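Quick log. Single chain, no ligands specified.
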Amino acid sequence: MNTKLTLSNIADVKEIVRISKLSFHSDILVGGEELDGPPDYDSISWHEQMQKSGKLYSYWLGDAIIGAAILWISKREIYIGRIFIDPLYFHRHLGMKLMELIEKLLPNAIYKLDTPVWNVRTNQFYKKCGYKEIKRDKDTVNYQRGCTNQLE
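-> predicted structure:
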């Protein structure tokens, strides 16, 4: 499987939003609200802003976009704001591959993310990827991967 992660072009945004809607709407299978998702998951203008600010990444399988990531990258930390994959590609280990590609962007970084408590699928997925729960409240679980002693 030839996968790659690239900074998105403005031409990628419509396809990314289409995939975002499909992906987050599939959360109904794991406790999510029908036809819902995180803030602006279905907004073309918001994704265009993420693209223009260099935070939107396209996830490719061959010559087709099959998902995306929204990343805040600093010198020693990557905050994974959002990842999603077209449900047609679920259960093929492509989510794991996407996380590997993200972690190759800054190999010695600390990676942080959060996900809803109710979403059994994403909580299991991040644990399977080696992320450790560092904080939880009634709505959100925060995860981290990487060595905390790397920070000065």
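The chain has a mean pLDDT of 91.
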